């Protein structure tokens, strides 16, 4: 029985109709109808209305093979419900395939199984159901047209067949590829049939994707999809601009500008689009799309006729030349070979079996066990971490200022770590406490992930990289620093491997971008571990001299910009390099052999404390021994790379020596003892060297080793991996379980830093301080705190370094200055039996409240009786922080008892204040200070403005003119001479030039960050 077939010949993406063929040139068809792009649907409907049983879609320049129609009909009649049959498409004047069925990803991005320039060698010779076929040369049943209509003209050639095939399948028909039927298409059509390109070649490529994706969603969700596409396009445009590709950015912006038009153009398709995916099993994966896009970039496929001709038989000259130009270039990687026939012939491993997955799971579990107490309301406190519940503006003011309010005040720059934490807190809306909390919780898996990525410089093998990630993240120095809240050490530990990779890239690739990135990372490392500034600077200078590459100086520019003012002060006080940022935390100092095992301190178990098993925790040191022995296997391997072994050995020795020196040097002072420097910086270099030795024992590289291997290579490698991984995993498990059961040094607290009444007075215009007495071990110690007492704003490495002097193990505390002597005398009056009037001494120090805290016991009872017996204090009761007294007698310097008006003067004198006016007769009056400004009324000559602060910290000025300084009151308090008139006094501890230098350093950091961006990496052909 003969079939009535109508060929609809139309334009295809703007092809010229002047080359259209007549009906006599299309054998086997009953009639030929001409159609333009706009009236194709009407023409197809008219053909069906005229009695056509099949409609054959052809472009004006398509050239079907003589037997193409018969082969299409054979496939169409081979089974039931075949509604759409597509041929194999070949590029004109070439032997290259253009399409043989097509599919998309789940997001609707086109994936063509035919690689760019792929030669027809019979690989697509099987008749099979496919997700979709391209419409040039497609044969459509009249039943399909009656059920779903004609193909949509609103979509481009690249997605018109895909959208139509989805409707055909949803109606219950099959979509089949007839590979033996061939239709030759022009290069312009073949260009549209390539996979979704990145970067897009033109605006039309992006708009074609947008229209198809907008046609698939429900009408109610179209606006959400439009917004997503808009922001995606804008982000892609910004990325292309950063890559120095303005043309590519223009393509994305042009498509973004027309999203509204495209959404309206496919509105009718959304109403008839299938609700569910008709063939989810035939969709392509994202990896397959990435492979196709990589093929497009590697072959430079732009779809132009010149490109196809260059890969055709005519362009190659001979058949062998065609294979050399086409197949050898297009099919030269494993991914292309796997996708050559549309079948997955390569082995695939689940992501759950990847070595990195196990490391991330282990470190994430350890992070949960260690940090679960950090989640919840309250502020972090305890350990070596000062409180962080301060405002962003306060922290920024401390960075821009020199005034350190700790104790009786000092004039020192802020630690560079505070600037780093401020930048880190920006994504958290300036909340320092939340930012550090997230850092501590994610530290372990982040360290593993960063190390895994950076280890790709050493080897591409995932197993070795995962091993190095586990060893680095499970180091006892890193985990103990995390448990004790040493934020600077944790942050530097995270960044150090990335800095090493960036510096290696800067040297090997001669890249100024990598040099700038290495400088930014080094600035973070030096902020957390200041002592590493010295070896890092020496290393960079040596590299500059050896390579004669001045661009490497960019690695020092951010360090100087971030630490400039602090570094100048540290040159005068070099002990600050040994002092770790944060609070002073005593710890059991480790011996040298314990440091050689990677432990920063003698192991102590919080969970076993007070039990008979507590001394057994020292046995955990034995667990770390296999790791060190496994690293030493590198010296017994003949194929190990010599340069890696030499560099790793240097790092190991240098790190161990630095750790020993740190543990022997006192860098902190508490009320009871000297505290050695925390050896995390030295152990970081030591662990980095161990990781390098482990890699050298497992990596096969050319090199000359003088010692033969004692074990077979595979057996030795397996032993090294088991020993290193087992040791690191057991140490991490033991430390995390102990922290989970016994608790960490860092905890959450809902208590305020000061009692409510004292806190209000501290932040008020009088700025009254609070003296906190701690009764413990039959001793009473005292410290002064203000509105920011105990916070990161009063944590200064320079201030702590100034408390000690001497070299190495012989460092001793410095003698008390007059200000500290006055404080010690006030504490002595309070705690001594019958100490007498303490109010005068406390008011001179600006102390308005006294808090007594400590564990219940005889020491606390004795201290309570002593403080209660001192005059000049009024007991207020018990606060959350401890017992509370208020200083009620400021002394008023023994005013005359017979003065009739002495009452009001004494009442004024009883108000304790940071600033006060003292007349020639010794009478004092408090001075409120608001925003650094005080209004002082007129008075007699000879008045002094006295500040409860040590001399030389704060300056006072009237209308920009600095007040003359007077003699220190009581030998330590800052004083200024006041005129008789009423004046407005402005206080400042920071000169304008310091703020200018600090801001200039930030600008230089911003410039370095811009330089580190690898611009100029746009697409190249």
What share of residues are in beta strands?
A: 5-15%
Number of strands: 32
- What is the subunit arrangement here? single chain
Number of helices: 38
Distance between the termini: 55 Å
Pairing-aware structural class of the strands and helices? alpha+beta
**Fraction of residues in H or I helices:** 40-55%
Low-pLDDT segments:
12-24, 312-348, 702-712, 890-909, 1016-1021
Largest sheet: 9 strands, mixed
The coarse silhouette is elongated
Mean pLDDT: 83
Round the Cα radius of gyration to an integer and report it: 39 Å
Give a short overview.
The protein is an alpha+beta fold and 1021 residues long. It is 45% helix and 14% strand. The chain contains 38 helices and 32 strands.
Describe the structure.
With 1021 residues, the protein is of the alpha+beta class. The chain is 45% helix and 14% strand. The chain is built from 38 helices and 32 strands. Strand 18 and strand 19 form a beta hairpin. Helix 20 (432-454) packs parallel to helix 23. It is elongated and about 120 Å long. Residues 12-24, 312-348, 702-712, 890-909 and 1016-1021 have low confidence and may be disordered.
Keywords:
45% helix, 9-stranded mixed beta sheet, disordered C terminus, 38 helices, 1021 residues, alpha+beta, 5-stranded mixed beta sheet
What is the fold's blueprint, element by element?
Blueprint lengths: L4 E6 L20 E5 L4 H10 L4 E6 L3 E2 L3 H9 L5 E10 L5 E3 L3 E2 L5 E2 L16 E2 L9 E3 H7 L8 H14 L3 E12 L1 H6 L10 H14 L5 H21 L3 H12 L1 H7 L1 H6 L13 H14 L5 H6 L2 H4 L2 H7 L1 H4 L3 H5 L16 H17 L7 E3 L10 H9 L2 E2 L5 E2 L4 H10 L6 H23 L7 H12 L2 H8 L3 H22 L3 H17 L4 H15 L9 H16 L19 H4 L24 H13 L9 H22 L2 E4 L4 E3 L3 H19 L14 H30 L4 E3 L6 H8 L5 E8 L2 E7 L11 H5 L2 E2 L6 E2 L4 H14 L7 H6 L2 E8 L3 H12 L3 E7 L2 E6 L14 H8 L5 E4 L5 E3 L6 E4 L7 E7 L4 E4 L2 E2 L10 E5 L5 E6 L3 H21 L9
Parallel strand pairs: 1-2, 1-3, 5-11, 18-22
Antiparallel strand pairs: 3-10, 4-11, 5-6, 5-10, 7-8, 9-11, 12-17, 13-14, 15-16, 18-19, 20-21, 22-24, 23-24, 25-26, 25-28, 27-32, 28-31, 29-30, 29-32
Helix pairs in contact: 4-6, 6-7, 6-8, 6-9, 7-8, 17-20, 17-21, 17-31, 18-19, 19-20, 19-24, 20-21, 20-23, 21-30, 21-31, 22-31, 23-24, 23-30, 24-26, 24-38, 26-38, 28-30, 28-31, 29-30
